[in-house]
Amino acid sequence: MEINYFNNIINIRDKHNNTVIPKENCSIQKISSIYSNTKQPIFKLVIDGKPISRNNTYVVTYICQTCNIDKAITLNLYMRKVNKEKVHCDTCKNNDDDKCKAQSEFMKQHVHTILAGEYIKSTSVKSHMVDERIELSIQDWEKEDDDFKENYYLCHLTVDDFERIRNKIVSINQKKYTNVDEWDYFPTYRVYNQTRYTPMLIHKVEKCVEKPLYIEFTCENCDSLFIHRDIETIKNRHKLLCQTCSLTNKTFRLRNKILKNGTTVMWQSIPERRFIEWCEEHQIDIKNGPKIAYHFKEKEHTYRVDFELPQQRLLIEIKDNHCWHAQQVASGKFTAKENAAKEWSDTHHYTYHVIFPKTLQKYKDSILTSL
Asked: CA within 20 to 30 Å of 137's CA: 98, 122, 259, 345, which one?
């Protein structure tokens, strides 16, 4: 079999330096890798007597055994074709009349559920295999020593960890599935590579498994949506924050100030804290401002206004001339925030003000005058 696949190769090229490898220096051989768990030999390309690993930069140009069209694919894809004894290229495979008809009928039947993120691939035929794998995973995990289990959970989520963040997950696998309640989290699914175990999501009804990748979350601070490629990224995070809020929180950490009346007001900068203290000193009721939705660059965001003075019907945003604010002004993002806040203020009969440290004292005087 490998002879046919090798003879159909036109050339092998290194895409990094565009060098063509002489075919007479190459061969396809069945080799068992020393790092393999199964020790089953597979076909590999050998160049100058050295088997080529999957970490390579080679491109193979070959003649399809079915349609005789010249095709160019990566070496990894070509060797996968050899090991699976595939004789069709993408062109002749996708031009197959029966496949096109079946795909058309499938899309007509399921297009609405696919677009809505509600389609679940039926695996009823293999559901018993998933149950067997789960049982095997449990048995093998029980045999592991305590050090291995402890180290594994240092970087992977436990069931309790996942349940804590479940209500913050909007979708998984690039919006493929949007109803996370239909899935159970299984942290130690047995796999046969060097990792030995990996977390999986298991559908409660269909008994299919999905690797939790490209998870979309809701930011706990601003309610905007953001995506992490791996769920392990949020291991040990106390709060799930988007990139903007995470960066802001590291630079200007949110803090709480408990007022004499028992209420709590959040602040980030020294001018904000001093303004809270000034309001409390002059017996002016103060609380954190509302969260206002706004659109910027075709995405929906949430703007949390710093403070609200309900008795004076004022919304107050205290800003300093730091680089983050300057960037938002330059990009137009802060203008979008201002417009949304002004619209909210008009609807609720409030007045919205943006105050800088240099004008803060003057603004305080105007509030005292109005009392």
From this structure: 122
What is the chain's mean pLDDT, rounded?
85
* Whole-number Å distance between alpha carbons of 169 and 193: 28
pLDDT score of 121 more than 80: no
Pull the structure tokens for residue 65. 């055994």
Widest CA span in the chain = 93
350 in the same domain as 265 = yes
Q: Which domain holds residue 279?
A: 252-370
Are both 261 and 350 inside the same structural domain?
yes
Nearest to 214 by CA among 243, 180, 181, 175: 175
186-225 tens-digit pLDDT: 999 998 777 789 999 998 888 888 999 999 998 887 778 8
Q: Is the per-residue pLDDT at 125 higher than 50?
A: no
- Give just the sign of the alpha carbon dihedral 25, 29, 34, 37: positive
Regarding whether 225 and 130 lie in a shared domain, the answer is yes
- Rg, Å, the chain Cα set: 30
pLDDT at 123 > cutoff 50: no
pLDDT over 90 (residue 98): no
- Domain end point (choices 181, 206, 234): 234
- Its pTM stands at 0.45
Q: What is the dihedral of CA 167, 168, 173, 175, to 10 degrees?
A: 90
Domain count within the chain: 3
Domain check: are 187 and 277 in the same one?
Answer: no
Question: Does some domain include residue 175?
Answer: yes
Give yes or no: residues 178 and 80 share one domain.
no
Q: Is the pLDDT of residue 323 over 80?
A: no
Q: Which helix (H) or strand (E) holds 215?
A: strand 213-218
Segment 343-352 mean pLDDT: 94
Give the three-state DSSP class for 168. helix
pLDDT of residue 117: 66
Do both 201 and 287 map to the same domain? no
